[in-house]
Amino acid sequence: MATHESAARKLAQSAGEFLIGGARPENALRVTRLGYGAMRITGDGVWGPPKDRAEAVRVLQRTVELGINFIDTADSYGPGVSEEIIAEALYPYPKSLVIATKGGFDRSGPNQWKENGNPAHLRSACEGSLRRLRLEQIDLYQLHRIDSKVPAEDQLGALKDLQTQGKIKHIGLSEVSVKQIQHARKIVDVVSVQNRYSIADRGSEGVLEYCEKEKLGFIPWFPLAAGKVSAKAGETPITRLAARLKATPSQIALAWLLAKSPVMLPIPGTSKVAHLEENVAAANLKIDANQMQELNDEARAS
Q1: Active-site hit among 77, 141, 197, 210
Q2: Arch. (CATH architecture) of 2-227+262-271
Q3: pLDDT 10s digits, 82-136
């Protein structure tokens, strides 16, 4: 059993590592490039508890057993549910585990999301995340959205104050343009960006290129396009390559992301252990230059 678990850990870590905040290595977060997104361990519409809480706990515990040390969540997932289950499953945390969370939304019901960048709300959200996660400091705290109704300087200033107080270690952004990142970096030290991105959705290509140039971690959410990659009908470059490599289309899509850029940190989410193990196996897939070209052609045609 020990040998099996050791092999599993090596498999997860074969995706490589990345230093979030690597401009100052002594303060950086060393994470596995293939992480886990904890949005799906909630109820339908990302609202309320999951249908099978015990399975959600097993998923989180198996995530760590497989060698992944980067978990991404948010106060709005549930709301609060995802963070509570993470603590239930993993506290006291392994020393190497990095937990990233986010604030900046109000939730009023299933699939209801309202931006709230009020500094008081962000401070309260951070305090709530600290309490639910049972942490004294959050490794990576991300502004879930820059609220257009509130000056960006005020929102980022609130996060900077929380960082000065020692409540958060690093600051990240989510769903932003290059221009917004550049502006934010005049106010705070930004170490990561989380935008929607996948082989089927490359709208943030320019942001990825900027992050690569500036060595900022790029965390693609919906890295499997919410299941659309595996649901495509007919023969495609993804399905053909999956057949050749004896892999699933989802595994190919994750391997493509890992090969796409050294700053790419995919965080596929799931509520099932079997699906988690399938995703982690993608870390061991290697895609050569010709195969990348095939898949890039597919991406451009999507």
Answers
A1: 77
A2: Alpha-Beta Barrel (3.20)
A3: 999 999 999 999 999 999 999 999 999 999 999 999 999 999 999 999 999 999 9
